[in-house]
């Protein structure tokens, strides 16, 4: 992310960086790395598809839910007008995306190797115990979907708010910069060891 910002700043003097959706790619990558062990470049087709699907999903359901979630009967008597039809269509596309990746994980799964992500761990449990109670492939898809739903939009909005706050509150920005300079310095990028 830092390299991308520096590239934008370096290539376009005085460039305006839209922060509204800036973090989406990086947040999706973090979640997808945990779930599937895959990290995409921002312009890779898979990342663009995944972002588009999640954008469609969040557009269909706002922060308080869709009309059909408040009035379930609308999903039956007015599926198009209530947004239910679009929601289901997008939901199915995301489930297909996740199922394809789960299938790839199942095909390359090696019980003798260490698990590298959530899907590997879950597939190991399924292979060792079979589909028991709530452990099923469908449940794995649902859990990945939940992680996307819970982690993407909220984290992106929080990051955008944080940057907006720093831009508006110069004193807070100055204090944050002082702490970064004290902990990290100016001669290297931050890393996970700096959290201590």
Can you give me a brief rundown of this structure?
This protein is mostly helical and 196 residues long.
Observed structural traits:
mainly alpha; Cytochrome p450; 66% helix
Structural account:
By secondary structure, the chain is mainly alpha-helical. It has one domain: Cytochrome p450. The chain is 66% helix and 0% strand. The chain contains nine helices and no strands. It has helices at 2-11, 24-36, 45-60, 67-70, 74-77, 84-108, 118-129, 137-168, 170-183. The longest helix is centred in the last third of the chain and has 32 residues, at 137-168. The protein is globular. The two termini are 21 Å apart. The model has no long low-confidence stretch (mean pLDDT 86).
- Would you tell me the overall average pLDDT? 86
CATH classification class: Mainly Alpha
Overall geometric form: globular
**What is the straight-line distance between the termini?**
21 Å
How many helical elements?
Answer: 9
In CATH, the topology is named Cytochrome p450
SSE class: mainly alpha
Query: Into which percent range does the helicity of residues fall?
Result: 55-70%
How can the largest sheet be summarized? none
- What oligomeric state best describes the polypeptide chains here? single chain
**How many separate domains?**
1
Q: What fraction strand?
A: under 5%
The radius of gyration is: 21 Å
CATH architecture descriptor text: Orthogonal Bundle
The CATH homology group name: Cytochrome P450
Ranges where pLDDT stays below 50 over 5 or more residues in a row are: none
Order of helices and strands: HHHHHHHHH
Number of strands: 0
